[in-house]
Amino acid sequence: MRSARPLDSTCSSRTNWTQPPALWMQETPTRRRIHRGRFTIAAKHHITIAEVYESELVDIEKAIAHYEQAADYYKGEESNSSANKCLLKVGHYSAQMEQYAKAIEIYEQVATSTMDNPLLKYNAKEYFFKASLCHFIVDELNAKLAIEKYEEMFPAFSDSRELKLLKKLLDAHEEQNSEAFTEAVKDFDSVSRLDQWLTTMLLRIKKTIQGDAGDLK
């Protein structure tokens, strides 16, 4: 097989970026030599590949790998917002695959990077909320300690509906009260509709309550 040439400033405009992802991926060993200014191009192609694995081939592990690579390239261009979008995909799927430690690390990282940004800081509460849910699935005490840390890091989190829900869920879980757990979720959902990811995480927590029926109805 002919070895791929590094992408540099002299790279021909005729480079075949339209070839199938499977073929393009064979050229990725040259990625370490991609010059600054070309990272964004490489990142976009990794996202394209990730989306193919995500929606067509349904290979989430490979999708995660390409979103991670795209995030690294965006960081190389200091495009932190774009990098964070890719990382959030990684966190989303890592949690779904029960890789909670990895998901927590990502959500904390993104929350920390956005909470001091005037335009993005209100999103930080969502990421701390998701990190808290991942902690909660692993261990109730872990969740309590994490929530205390997030409140100290980001005081605005203290007044959020997400934190109020978490505290109600912690109380219900400690009392092994599945009805109170479900009622808290319903109250939250009546104002802020739960998406499929949140529903899945909440069900996983609820199933740890003794005698739970395994639904949120």
Automatic annotation (TrEMBL):
GO terms for molecular function: soluble NSF attachment protein activity; syntaxin binding. Residues 9-19 have a biased composition (Polar residues). Keywords: ER-Golgi transport, Membrane, Protein transport, Transport. Its main location: membrane. It comes from the Eukaryota. Required for vesicular transport between the endoplasmic reticulum and the Golgi apparatus. This is Beta-soluble NSF attachment protein. It comes from Gadus morhua.
